Amino acid sequence: MSRMIKSHAERHVEPLSISPEPRLSPETETETDQSTSTLDQVEALRRQVTALQRISSLGILAGGVFHELNNALTPILNYAKLGLRNPDPDYRERALKRILEGAQRATTITGSMLGLSRPGRDPNHREPVDLGRLVEDVLRLVGKDLTRNRARLDLQIASRPFARVNAIQIQQVLINLLINARQAMPEGGVLRLRLAVDPSGRMVELSVADQGVGIAPEHLRSIFEPFFSTKTGPDAAGLGGTGLGLAVCRDIVEAHHGRIRAESRRGQGSTFTLLLPACPPPSDLDASTQAGAA
Questions:
Q1: Nearest CA to 246 among 195, 198, 183?
Q2: Using CA atoms, how far apart are residues 157 and 159, in angstroms rounded to an integer?
Q3: Residue 224's closest CA among 204, 251, 206, 205?
Q4: Which burial class, exposed, middle or buried, applies to 12 when counting CB atoms under 10 A from its CB (0-12, 13-18, 19+)?
Q5: Distance between CA atoms of 153 and 190, rounded to whole angstroms?
Q6: What are phi and psi of 129, to 5 degrees?
Q7: Do 270 and 264 contact (CB within 8 A), yes or no?
Q8: C-beta separation of 269 from 209 below 8 A
Q9: CA dist., res. 276 & res. 13, Å (int)
Q10: What are the mean pLDDT values of the chain's consecutive 10-residue runs (294 residues total)?
């Protein structure tokens, strides 16, 4: 028995060894750092292009927006003068109401422009957005530009769906599509803007259709590629195309897990459709709606 114990005690036991994780060679680490740096640079350039495209849209709309702002400010000035001259309290109260209406309209216009020019620090921010209201905000900015270029708007809002989006980015996409549609109709025409939920109820459809010259079949597959443009020269306002607008639109929509498609026939116009995942309205909106109904 003592031999067995001794033999067991003298048995050699291999020590447990833990190998460290393999280290990357200096060359591999350098390549990884360079790859990360390149991706960061590409992302930074992509954001710069998106910002430049947004600023370009603001420049196109600036004249019309300033005109609308002047229309809002003119009655403020006029009713203020009339109110000062007329001692009747009832008349002054009516004048103040008109001044308040004009100021609210001016605030809405400037707020829309400021929102588009300063999109926020986090481009990945998403929240439930009433797309019907988003469309109305965009039309407030582009309406004068459409009218001045004889583009008659046919607005079709079948419902007011919500989608979890970055509102400023989707506004940028819609503004770009509306400007393109207007430019495609140099002699004017009907521009149809439609908002609805698809039959499945899971996707929101936002489409912009024009009665313009259309896009050749051989060009249709390339229109979302960077620097590809079907515009041969400047329009009546002296504005041409860089080929970046639709590429930026595609990047924004795909970042929202959506899709953008184009349909066109030469001489019959084009239709661009955004497909965005629908979402329920925010809970606080539901509560306020129910309270109002009660």
A1: 183
A2: 6
A3: 251
A4: exposed
A5: 6
A6: -125, 135
A7: yes
A8: yes
A9: 65
A10: 45 43 54 64 62 62 69 82 88 88 79 64 82 91 88 92 92 90 92 94 95 88 75 53 71 92 91 95 63 44
